[in-house]
Amino acid sequence: MCGIVGYIGNKNAYPILIKGLKRLEYRGYDSAGVALLNSKNELNIYKTKGKVSDLENFVADKDCSGTVGIAHTRWATHGEPNKINAHPHCSNSKNIALIHNGIIENYADLKEKLIQKGIEFKSDTDTEIIVHLIEYLLQKHNTNLLSAVQLALSSVVGAYAIAVLDKNNPDTIIAARKSSPLVVGIGEDEFFIASDASPIVEYTKKVIYLDNEEIACIRRGEEIKFINLKNIEVQHEIQEVLLDIGQLEKGGYAHFMLKEIFEQPACINNCMKGRVNVAHDNIKLSAVIDYQEKLVNAKRIIILACGTSWHSGLIGKYLLETYCQIPVEVEYASEFRYRNSVVGENDVVIAISQSGETADTLAAIELAKAKGAFIFGICNAVGSSIPRATHTGAYIHVGPEIGVASTKAFSGQVTVLAMLAMALGRSKNTISEKDYFEIIQELANIPQKMEKVLQLNEEIADLAKIFTYAKNFIYLGRGYCFPVALEGALKLKEISYIHAEGYPAAEMKHGPIALIDDEMPVVFIATNNALYEKVVSNMQEVKARKGRIIAIISEGDTKLNDIADFCIEVPQTLECLEPLITTIPLQLMAYHIAVCKGKNVDQPRNLAKSVTVE
């Protein structure tokens, strides 16, 4: 959600901060701001509602000098999106500025106590209490800035990633985190902080990821000091970011989302590299090798995820139950964490998150881990919180996903789940040699088949123009393609703001069929698999009620031309791998409908890429 950037060094901070905020725009936000300490030791704070470009316009004629500064993009939680509620917030003396990502749960109690001390509040945010609390403790205990931040955060309940500037400590930035990501970049005589590595990689590949309840004291010309809330100094190894700056650019595409849809064949190749060995007919996942006994002896698997990751988890359920003969439950992490969930030492929990920072999924992991479950993480962002919180896992290796609506991460997650099911099924002897070898061979063919689907882009763009009028859509599929229907509906909702629902096709007659009329577009995933005839019957029911049918069908299928109004042909593949092929036309259709409606495809309203608050 919110984006944090900070800089201290010998360069002018403002251009670095603004460029960093632009790198973080994908996270979703509604206002932006910057705080700079200039050579006269003046603290200049500029902020505005709207985009980073609005902030640039606002400060065009203002003093933006200084070699130390912090900047922020806010996604509103407490208080409406406006200039007053935008970050940075400053203390009553105007000496201290602070930016914050997260939610302070006990802010109301703290605010009341600070008001009783005579402290005035200007915003409706929970963030403002932190900066006032720091200044109050600084003055009350006559202590230093680092100690005041420690004391303040010890009183705070909730999630935070913060960065603090103080006029009286002009060569220092204090940064801290708990349950919200924060990374420190180490350059030549300069330091950076950010919510993730994307604003940093242009300047340095050397980073340190802060752990929960840790504070970084970053002073110009000194080594960084890391200390926790218990006043214990901690040590960190410097890590190298494996991220190419070119991956953060659009590369000639109109939107990041379209670029990422077209990157999927290459991404799936990267995901399988070193894992799928077609020549030797085997799949190797290091996690399955290293923790074979724990995984093989699991009595149950629980998949925890949110949004698109939850849909990939449903496909994972079908794969794991079919080929590993283990009962699998798929739960929304946000629900799991607030139930009295029955979890034990014989359970394996698979946590799926593109960002690796999803707050509900992280909290659910900690709950399951406390009850003795073995945790397997599936993530995209290397070094993020979920990989560090799990016992083992697998990265999907699809590269940074900038578009808020997930596309290539979904494909990567499904691919990892397929490889996991194959490797674990082989270890358990629950998959036949025929199925095992056949799926390995077909996995190797998937990128080429994806390329073939992408050649339909113009055809799907023309089709999308017909349906910009629609106010509702229904997506229907069965078996492995039911989660595809859910994902297709979600993509349309996210970026075009058209109401859409996904259902198992057989469930249509249990309610949704009442919605069918001659203005209702109904998307069927009707590929030639074991449930094909069943889906055709469901299509006939929609046709009888004059619904407008868009069908995703297998190449060469002429049977449905007389039933469906529009057919999109995709290459035939194994039923268990169909989601990797059938999802792409639905991604493209959602994209082109949104473009036709003039929507902001990469940054849809109200949404954030990395949901770091519950």
The total of helices stands at 19
The separation of the N and C termini measures 11 Å
Radius of gyration: 26 Å
Fraction of residues in H or I helices = 25-40%
What is the fold-level CATH name, i.e. the topology of the largest domain? Glutamine Phosphoribosylpyrophosphate, subunit 1, domain 1
Query: Going by CATH, what is the homologous superfamily of the largest domain?
Result: Aminohydrolase, N-terminal nucleophile (Ntn) domain
Shape: globular
- The CATH architecture of the largest domain can be given as 4-Layer Sandwich
- Give the C-level CATH assignment of the largest domain: Alpha Beta
**How many beta-strand runs?**
27
Secondary-structure-derived class: alpha/beta
Structural description of this entry:
The protein has 614 residues and is an alpha/beta fold. The protein folds into three domains: 3-246, Aminohydrolase, N-terminal nucleophile (Ntn) domain (Glutamine Phosphoribosylpyrophosphate, subunit 1, domain 1, 4-Layer Sandwich), CATH 3.60.20.10; 251-453, Glucose-6-phosphate isomerase like protein, domain 1 (Rossmann fold); 455-614, 3-Layer(aba) Sandwich (Rossmann fold). The protein is built from 19 helices and 27 strands. The strands form five sheets. An eight-stranded antiparallel beta sheet has the order 3-2-4-1-10-9-11-15, covered by helices on one side. The longest helix has 22 residues, at 433-454. The N and C termini lie close together (11 Å).
